[in-house]
Amino acid sequence: MQKTTTSSIKTDLNAKKLSPLDPKTMQPSDDTLHGILQFAAAYRVQRVAKNQFVEMFLN
């Protein structure tokens, strides 16, 4: 068996000292939201029988 070790300096032990992320920086861009909404508008699922579905892309 081969053991691999790292020094404690290279690990993320200091992650607790980092400030929490700003929610504003975690928001998707307008282009990303536009792409998601376009996909949602073009994607449909229809039930045709019990446990059977048809997926449709309207583009």
In short:
With 59 residues, the protein is α+β, with helices and mostly antiparallel strands. It has one helix spanning 30-42; strands at 43-49, 52-57.
Count of extended strands: 2
Which spans have pLDDT < 50 for at least 5 consecutive residues? none
Distance between the termini: 55 Å
Mean pLDDT: 78
Strand count, sense and closure of the main sheet? 2 strands, antiparallel
Which strand-content bin applies to the residues?
A: 15-25%
Shape: flat
Helix coverage percent of residues? 10-25%
Q: Structural class of the helix and strand makeup? A: alpha+beta
* Major β-sheet strand ordering: 1-2
Structure description:
The chain is an alpha+beta fold and 59 residues long. It has a domain at 29-59. It is 22% helix and 22% strand. It contains one helix and two strands, in the order H-E-E. The protein has one helix at 30-42; strands spanning 43-49, 52-57. Strands 1-2 form a two-stranded antiparallel ribbon. The radius of gyration is 23 Å and the shape is flat. The protein starts with 29 loop residues before the first helix and ends with a strand. The model has no long low-confidence stretch (mean pLDDT 78).
Features:
two-stranded antiparallel sheet, single chain, 1 helix, 59 residues
Give the topology.
Blueprint: H1 30-42, E1 43-49, E2 52-57
Antiparallel strand pairs: 1-2
